[in-house]
Amino acid sequence: MKTLTIAILSLGALLHLSSVLSAADSSIPPNILFCIADDASAHFGAYGCPWVKTPNIDRLAKNGLVFENAYTPTAKCAPSRAAILTGRNPWQLEEAANHQSHFPAKYKAFTEAMADAGLYVGAQGKFWGPGSATDQNGKQRSWGLTTSGGESHKDDHGAKFKNFLADRPKGKPFFFWFGSTNPHRAYELDSGVKAGKKTTDIEQVPNFWPDVDTVRRDMLDYAIEVELYDSQVGSLLKVLEESGEADNTLIVITSDHGMPFPRVKGHNYHLSNRVPLVAHWPQGIQAPGRRVNDLVSLNAIAPTFLELTAIDASKSGMAAITGLSLTDLFRNQPKNNRDIVILGRERNDVVARPGSEAGLGYPVRGIRKGTMLYLHNFAPDRWPCGDIDLGLKDTDASPTKALVEKLGDKDKFWQFSFGKRPLEELFDLSSDPDCTHNLINDPKYRIQADALKEQMIAELTKQQDPRVLGQGDIFDNYPTAKKASKGK
Asked: Rounded to whole angstroms, how far apart are CA atoms 123 and 398?
């Protein structure tokens, strides 16, 4: 009887999967190769960037889908990756809304649900973090991974992926997470120029930095690191093609958030939260070569992968998912309304702003709808990049940061990067993608701003966000996994 029940359940899963994958005309779950960069904005050739060369990713984009408006819910590593793994926004994940946090054991990741369902699951490189993650028994969390390992620039990534495939049980679908550490800082100074790049290759420096040689050279050094990520992807693709599994493997290329520069990483502007997102799957994507303009969030990753592998999140023990699966877009049959994305931020770095044991955060919530981006800064009295006397900890060290710091607080570029912000900000991304012209005090935009705020609050109330329910102090008082050091 038990065997019969298992057989019936298995048949039901296959029938469900068959309907999900009608575009692929197959009842076989796809393999999934997920590649995530560390701190990359959409500076790929596929996104029209001429000063960064990404031939491997561009090839996938040409024969797959390019998502023009993909956003991470928050532009910091650990909370962004928490959203990817759970399909929930960071403010729905308690401590995991913060950087350097303790990931609550009760929130199950899609990789754990996959492992429970019998998929062969592995990872290499950066997964979730930085922070602490233990299971319900207080042991180091495995995330359901059969194999995992670190990576560096010199590692042969293809060889590690090849070993993973060689160890896979015959006929079992696989999921593999490749987490690059590129283009995270630190960079080799002037590596871009040494590689033959020219500062004139950069068509435009963002309006919030001075257009000077130091900044352009820093951007070229960043370009080298993005290109290293592309070469890592190329190594994985070579192994995949040689394995014979490429046709039924969904490849997803993305990044956790924007580039590690002032006013980008850790903030909530267009360049901060908009990320590259490319999907390639010969057997499952209809009309490849499309560019998708829908607004999508990285919290869509988990429900997409779970649907394609016929896993019911609620029955697997995962908390209710907020993100919308992308499978309808794969089939070129959009059915979901994707006219908004919600953004936010809590505590990024430890003791950047004294006021609690681990330091106060800089709470923000935002909404993009159409071309408009509305941001609500809940604590405009705080410094968005951390207190000045503590070294502006919420901005990674870089030549660009050092240059802007030296300009002093009377300079407009200093104010763009480090200055205090008003309660509300409103930007029209069609004319101001750098978000330097705040429209909030223009009377003709007031009605639009109020409507965006109302929709944002309504959506966050449905998501039970403590910040909009009057309980936002909870995020400031969560403990940190990183030892707090006071000083620069």
From this structure: 30
DSSP lists the bridge partners of residue 82 as: none
Q: Taking a C-beta distance cutoff of 8 angstroms, is the pair 364, 376 a contact?
A: yes
Can you tell me whether residue 449 is helix, strand or coil?
Answer: helix
| Beta strand segments in 50-119, E | 65-71, 101-103
Q: What is the pLDDT of residues 234-259, one digit of tens each?
A: 999 999 999 999 999 999 999 999 99
CA 46 from centroid of its chain's CA atoms = 18
* Beta pairing, strands 364-369 & 372-377: antiparallel
- pLDDT above 70 covers a percentage of the chain that reads 92
Q: How far apart, in whole angstroms, are the C-alpha atoms of residue 145 and residue 270? A: 33
The alpha helices in 309-420, defined as continuous H runs, are: 327-330, 399-407, 412-418
483 SS3 class: coil
Going by the DSSP 8-state scheme, the letter that residue 334 receives in this structure is -
Highest mean pLDDT among 18-27, 43-52, 137-146, 157-166: 43-52
At residue 152, does pLDDT exceed 60? no
Contact by Cβ (8 Å): 351, 484: yes
Which residues, in sequence order, are bridge partners of residue 380? none
The pTM score is: 0.93
Q: What is the mean pLDDT of the chain?
A: 92
Q: How many residues does the chain have?
A: 488
Contact 146, 129 (CB under 8 A): no
Residue 105 has pLDDT above 50, yes or no: yes
Measured CA to CA in angstroms, residue 243 lies from 168, 266, 284, 362 at distances of 12, 39, 19, 47
Non-local CB neighbours of 444 within 8 Å, separated by 6+ positions:
none
CA-based R_g, the chain, Å: 22
Q: Confidence class of residue 350 from pLDDT cuts 50, 70 and 90?
A: confident
CA 116 – CA 202 distance, rounded (Å): 47
Query: How buried is 4 (Cβ within 10 angstroms: 0-12 exposed, 13-18 middle, 19+ buried)?
Result: exposed
Q: What are the beta bridge partners of residue 29? A: none
Tens-place pLDDT, residues 440-463: 999 999 999 999 999 999 999 999
